[in-house]
Amino acid sequence: MTQIPLERKVLNENDRIAGELRARFAHHGILCLNLVSSPGAGKTSLLERTLEAFAPTQRVAVLTGDIQTDNDAVRLARFGFPARQITTGGTCHLDARMIEKAIADWNLADLNVLLIENVGNLVCPSSYDLGEAAKIVVLSVTEGEDKPLKYPAMFFRSELLILNKIDLLPYVPFSMAKARENAQKVHPGMEIIEVSCLTGEGLPKWQGWIDNKIASSIKALAAT
Amino acid sequence: MHEFAIASSVLDAVRTEAQLRPGMRVSKIGVRLGDLAGLDPDALSFCFEALTKETDLESVVLEIERKPLRQRCSRCANEFVVVNYETSCPECGEVLTVFLGGDELELAYLELEDV
What we know:
The complex is a heterodimer. Chain A is α/β, with parallel strands linked by helices. Helix content of chain A is about 35%, strand content about 20%. In chain B, helix 2 links the parallel strand 1 and strand 2 (about 60-65). The longest helix of chain B has 18 residues, at about 5-20.
């Protein structure tokens, strides 16, 4: 019997492609964000409000993943920015190769922001690096405040938590303090922004967060 | 539920390594799985068995080594294993602690036998 050490990641092929994508994004000064949440937490609504707020001069593109239908791409294309649907046909997450394929005919020099809406799922997308600068997890107040504890991997790997649908707080038994505490438990120091895509409350803060990130991408490009 | 995709990736690695070593048969693959990897070990084993059943790799054993979540305190530098996602420092109570390990999803080793 011979034992040989392998010592590599199971998803090293995905990570390799994600690394290539990250390098390409950096080369063009593109900020890539990967939005994750459970189904129905409001990723598409958040993207709609985000695209609406971008100046038409911003060079933004959107990729949206779903198991079936191109409904989200149709919703997002209304804002005049390129939006493409990735239909996974059953797969519960996006992987780096799907992103590589989806952007194959896009000229990256024309972009400075790429927003990826992952498949609605708080488990599987946490394992797959898509070459993004940051994962952003969206949690709505109609879900339990214990979601961060139930799905720790996703909250641990996400840089920012968007607490969405805060306009519904008067009607649901959701403790904002508890939700924040649980998020900090699994991800000490996690950034949190409370928003309502319906009333627009909190959205300027989110837009400010993106603007800061865009500025750092451009700064990083200038430094190279 | 992406354990099937992960089990396939593990099997791909087994096949690749086996091809590099003619005259040897893979008997075991060791995988390191962190608590934060977002994978259920039982489901992973189940998928691995389902994928190898009635194939030339049916006899390959998947051994999963669990890795707990570990943090280091940013104040007193205490290193500790996190229980129930209680990431505050058990020594001094500091809330801000830094991730050390526990998100592993790694191929650790391969065991081979002469045919």
